[in-house]
């Protein structure tokens, strides 16, 4: 018996190493399977968000180098920057200065609007299609990566794959993301924000140093993507910390441990806060140091006004009204939104929360006792952080009567209380669009929606194995439908195949500088349009106008019909003039009405003796600036004193008479009888126009009021050389705003086309 027992014990002892080996093998196999399952999971999720990115940005995936995602506005100028940064980094140029814009002076390229993530894409991809691929790729990848980062956060938070996948759809397809992607790649780069929120919650939950370091690194990453998101992240984090502190005090009070709770909280802030700060600085200083020095040394150039801050406020109904171009709900919301939006364009007010995400958030809060793990800890922090950023988005003032639409539209002029941005503006006046804080609300909302789905998932599973999958798919589809927003009736992409005028300019002598007409001001949609096409024809251009020196030149050359403009062009060294005759409609921030067409007549500048026509294409006429004017073969009439700058209407250049009197100058090669003819209208009713030569009145005409235009003809006697015809109007000018109510402070009398001299 003892022998048998010994044998049995020996057998067992002999079998133990085999069992241990089998266990190790089984553990290794399980680990491999887990890794394989993880690869499959993330592979499928990546394909999901890749497909969604293709859908949301179509056809950019197949036209990276020949189209622009979005509508033409600020993005025109951004693409030029990608091109120049790439050229400067890999070539001899300077990233901070370009000789290709604001010719002949060159342009200091502002670094404050170039985010580190923009610079990275520019350096790596900016050489493809003159910066266009870098621009589109940054936007396209943001839709993939934003979905993945949100999925990772929600997966950790809930453990639910389906809930996390739904959260990724809610976040990456939000109207906020869609709208910003159509204009600003840096603000479309939202994928790092969920990682920061995740790291912040994790650090508060575990209180470990390594997680505090992760929070600091993630926060630095947010600053790398957008200075605005970094600034808003400071206050989001502070709100979450306050919420966590209040909850800790509440729990401490219940356990009668207030004193120790406060000591622990203070120690956490000092120790873990220091770790987070060091991690943040190590990663952020290389990118932010130069910007900080630039802003602090020239603060005035980056300062905004309180009026800017107010105008940049989000209207509260934008959180609950579906986008005005929603294919399903747009008909119900469009009129109200467009009527009450104010001056803020759609990409600054696309903050619709969404019915599905809000309902799932409510479910999460109501069924909070069913939450598991990290979700139970995180949900109050997410609620507080999300609501606080909604408060930030409302701007510096909140009307006392919060239920009055008119009070919100005119908050500064009614009884109101100062909101958080009012005081934050005193800390830094460089930030004015606090609606961009909504990106943190969007993260919190998507995470809470994931929690809501996760608490419902066990009930759904009772209906069948695939019921949760079907429910998640249906909810994701509904989210995509209600989140759909288009910035206009036009496609959400622009074809950038070179136009005939671009090809014609590209063929001009190498290095020759040009000026585009009509000239448009700094950061106007048309001016930015010129900036983009400069990257295609590669000739230095007079656009944009930034410095006083360039503004002075622009004032001298802004009307190409004027002889003085030709002389100024010659002196400046600008060698070619491009008269645009078939410009596409100028873009304007949506909801604010369309800008008027600004194409010019093909006859524009044809009489200027300083210009020689060298080429005509379907959409432009190109002139060479001569070294000396051609001799006049016929009389030439020009504007004199008393007139304002040029305005384009129906392809014709007009000038307003802004004084009670003005002059026309007529240069004649000989003595003759002729007729002075011009097309004109009057503001605020008819005006009597009297004509004088050598101090004597020789004619008078009545010019009818707007919208009537009429041709005015007056016989004149010209002597050889310069003739001055003086005009006086009765009544005199009136302030435009008093008649048109458009905020225009100029005094205006009559609007006149460039005069013509006809045979007498």
What features would you describe in this structure?
This protein has 760 residues and is α+β, with helices and mostly antiparallel strands. Helix content is 50%, strand content 16%. It has 24 helices and 23 strands. Strands 12, 13, 15, 18, 22 and 23 form a six-stranded antiparallel sheet that branches. It has a five-stranded antiparallel sheet with strand order 11-14-19-16-17, with no helix packed on it. Strands 7-8-10-9 form a four-stranded mixed sheet. β12 (643-649) and β13 (652-657) form a beta hairpin. α1 (2-57) crosses α4 (132-158), α9 packs parallel to α11 (258-297) and α10 (227-254) packs across α15. The longest helix has 56 residues, at 2-57. It starts with a helix and ends with a strand. The model is unreliable at 1-16 (pLDDT under 50).
Assembly classification: single chain
User: What class, by secondary structure content?
Assistant: alpha+beta
| Tally of helical segments | 24
Question: Could you say which overall geometry the principal axes of the C-alpha atoms support?
Answer: elongated
Beta-strand percentage? 15-25%
Helix content: 40-55%
Separation of the first and last Cα atoms: 142 Å
**How many strands, which pairing sense, and closed or not: the largest β-sheet?**
6 strands, antiparallel
């Amino acid at each position: 018996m003892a022998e048998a027992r010994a044998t049995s014990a020996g057998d067992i002892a002999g079998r133990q190493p085999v069992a241990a080996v089998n266990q190790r093998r089984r553990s290794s196999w399980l680990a491999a399977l887990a890794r394989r399952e993880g690869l499959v999971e993330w592979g499928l999720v990546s394909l999901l968000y890749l497909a969604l990115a293709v859908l949301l940005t179509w056809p950019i995936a197949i036209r990276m180098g020949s189209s622009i995602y979005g509508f033409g506005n600020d993005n025109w100028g951004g693409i030029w920057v990608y091109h120049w940064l790439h050229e400067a980094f890999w070539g001899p140029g300077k990233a901070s200065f370009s000789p290709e814009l604001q010719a002949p002076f060159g342009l200091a390229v502002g670094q404050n609007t170039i985010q580190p993530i923009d610079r990275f894409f520019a350096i790596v991809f900016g050489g493809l299609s003159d910066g266009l691929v870098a621009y589109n790729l940054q936007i396209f990848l943001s839709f993939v990566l934003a979905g993945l980062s949100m999925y990772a956060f929600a997966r950790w938070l809930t453990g639910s794959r389906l809930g996390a996948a739904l959260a990724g759809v809610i976040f990456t397809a939000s109207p906020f993301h869609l709208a910003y992607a159509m204009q600003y790649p840096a603000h479309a780069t939202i994928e790092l924000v969920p990682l920061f929120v995740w790291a912040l919650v994790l650090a508060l939950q575990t209180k470990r140093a390594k997680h505090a370091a992760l929070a600091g690194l993630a926060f630095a990453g947010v600053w790398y993507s957008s200075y605005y998101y970094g600034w808003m992240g400071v206050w989001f984090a502070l709100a979450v910390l306050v919420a966590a502190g209040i909850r800790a005090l509440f729990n401490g009070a219940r356990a009668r441990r207030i004193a120790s709770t406060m000591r622990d909280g203070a120690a956490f802030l000092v120790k873990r806060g220091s770790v987070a700060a060091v991690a943040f600085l190590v990663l952020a200083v290389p990118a932010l140091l130069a910007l900080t020095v630039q802003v602090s040394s020239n603060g005035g150039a980056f300062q905004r006004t309180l009026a800017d801050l107010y105008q940049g406020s989000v209207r509260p109904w934008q959180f609950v009204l579906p986008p005005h171009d929603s294919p399903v709900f747009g008909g119900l919301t469009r009129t109200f939104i467009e009527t009450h939006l104010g001056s803020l364009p759609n990409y600054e007010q696309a903050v619709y929360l969404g019915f599905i995400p809000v309902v799932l958030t409510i479910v999460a809060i109501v069924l909070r006792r069913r939450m598991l793990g990290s979700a139970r800890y995180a949900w109050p922090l997410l609620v507080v952080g999300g609501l606080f950023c909604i408060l930030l988005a409302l701007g510096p003032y909140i009307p006392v009567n919060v239920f009055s639409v008119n009070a919100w539209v005119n908050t500064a002029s009614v009884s109101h209380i100062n909101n958080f941005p009012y005081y934050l503006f005193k800390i830094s006046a460089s930030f004015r669009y606090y609606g961009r804080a909504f990106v943190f609300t969007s993260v919190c909302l998507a995470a809470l929606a994931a929690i809501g789905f996760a608490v419902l998932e066990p009930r759904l599973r009772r209906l069948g194995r695939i019921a949760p999958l079907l429910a998640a798919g249906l909810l994701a589809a509904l989210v995509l439908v209600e989140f759909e927003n288009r910035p206009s009736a036009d496609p959400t992409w622009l074809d950038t195949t070179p136009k005939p005028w671009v090809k014609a300019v590209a063929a001009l002598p190498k290095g020759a500088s040009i000026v585009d007409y009509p000239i448009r001001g700094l950061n106007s949609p048309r001016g930015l349009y010129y900036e983009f096409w400069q990257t295609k024809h590669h000739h230095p251009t007079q656009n944009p106008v930034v410095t006083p020196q360039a503004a002075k030149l622009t004032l001298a050359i802004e009307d190409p019909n004027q002889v003085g403009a030709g002389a100024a062009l010659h002196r400046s060294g600008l060698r070619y003039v491009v008269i645009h005759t078939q410009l596409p409609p100028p873009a304007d921030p949506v909801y604010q009405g369309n800008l008027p067409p600004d194409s010019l007549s093909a006859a524009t500048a044809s009489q200027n003796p300083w210009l020689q026509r060298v080429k005509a294409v379907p959409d432009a006429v190109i002139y060479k600036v001569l070294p000396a004017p051609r001799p006049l073969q016929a009389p030439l009439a020009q504007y004199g004193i008393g007139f304002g700058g040029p305005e384009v209407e129906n392809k014709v250049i007009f000038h307003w008479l802004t004084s009670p009197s003005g002059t026309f100058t007529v240069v004649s090669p000989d003595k003759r009888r002729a007729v002075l003819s011009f097309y004109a209208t009057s503001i605020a009713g008819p005006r009597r126009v009297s004509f004088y030569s050598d101090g004597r009145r020789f004619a008078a005409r009545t010019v009818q009021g707007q919208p009537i235009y009429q041709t005015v003809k007056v016989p004149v006697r010209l002597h050889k050389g310069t003739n001055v015809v003086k005009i006086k109007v009765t009544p005199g000018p009136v302030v435009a705003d008093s008649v048109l109510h458009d905020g225009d402070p100029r005094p205006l009398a009559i609007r006149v086309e460039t005069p013509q001299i006809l045979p007498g």
